[in-house]
Amino acid sequence: SDNTYFFDRSGKAFSFVLDYLKEKSLPSSFIESERHQLLDDAHFFEIEGLLVELDVVPVLVGTNTEVVLLNRTEVLENLGKNSRLGKMVLDDSESPPYTIK
After folding, report:
1. pLDDT, one tens digit for every residue, the chain (101 residues)
2. CA 17, CA 10: separation in Å to the nearest integer?
3. Strand, coil or helix: what is 62?
4. Bridge partners, residue 61, by sequence
5. Other Cβ atoms within 10 Å of 42 Cβ, number
6. What pTM was estimated for this model as a whole?
7. Phi and psi dihedrals of 18, rounded to 5?
């Protein structure tokens, strides 16, 4: 084994992932049109901080093992701060993915 890894990901979006891992914030060169691919990469690599930076929260719904990515701002606006999910999103003591049954 030569310890070589191959990730079949978008090179442009992956550069933002690497920048985030180095700086812990989105680079000033971030392109909004890359948001969808960057979200996909952040979820693929399980980078919770980047998901938060992109204003997204991962949620497990019911007994399903698939994670749904929800926009944090939309959750708070549509469900409210007092909803079960809203409270979880605002409470830093529980880390994502949040589970809704």
Report:
1. 688 878 787 777 888 888 889 988 887 777 777 888 888 888 888 888 888 888 777 777 766 666 777 777 777 777 777 787 778 777 766 666 666 66
2. 10
3. coil
4. 100
5. 24
6. 0.58
7. -60, -40
